[in-house]
Amino acid sequence: MTDRDDLLKLVRELSVVNGRVTLSSGQVADWYVDLRRLTLHHAGAPLVGRVLLDLVDDWEFDAVGGLTLGADPVATAMLHAAAARGGRPLDAFVVRKSDKAHGLQRRIEGPDVAGRRVLAVEDTSTTGGSVLTAVEALREAGADVVGVAVIVDRGAEKAVRAAGLSYRSAFSLADLGQQG
Fold first, then answer.
1. Between vectors from CA 49 to CA 110 and to CA 157, what angle results, nearest 5°?
2. Is the pTM here over 0.90, yes or no?
3. pLDDT digit of tens for each residue in the chain (180 aa)?
4. Annotated binding site
5. Which residues participate in the annotated binding site for 5-phospho-alpha-D-ribose 1-diphosphate?
6. Measured distance CA(55)–CA(53) in Å, rounded
7. What torsion, rounded to 10 degrees, do the Cα atoms 136, 109, 78, 17 define?
């Protein structure tokens, strides 16, 4: 089995939850993909890092992150996977949902992104709202956003591409045996 196969198995086992839920987009669904159960799991996190690095292997970027909270473990998994491979150095960053009112008052935490090529990530995305909020903040901070990558696309691809961004997902709803 490949890392992708192993990751899909874990997504199905740990993250697909049946039951009525309201998504961050405000939409109501009869099932939910709780990827924090995967991205914060001892076996899941390393797989997430390796699979997403492989997914965007042909894209040039030197920092990865997105809107807190869904993107945080994805970005750190990729940072650790890149370090383990010994290839290019990869930094991670966290985009706050709003400006910080104390300390250094930074919206983007971690190494500075100004003038750098960055990858915006998210665990799963339905409308693209969270990742596009992160992209807007990154561009305002002077970053060059090369694209967006998610573990599971729940329908955001069209909106992200309409915003002029390249988009990739490790898995679709069909891979999970679900429909939109």
1. 90
2. yes
3. 899 999 999 999 999 988 898 877 788 888 889 999 999 999 999 999 999 999 999 999 999 999 999 999 999 999 999 999 997 899 999 999 987 665 566 899 999 999 999 999 999 998 999 999 999 999 999 999 999 999 999 999 999 999 999 999 999 999 998 765
4. 96-97, 100, 102, 122-130, 154
5. 96-97, 100, 102, 122-130
6. 5
7. -70
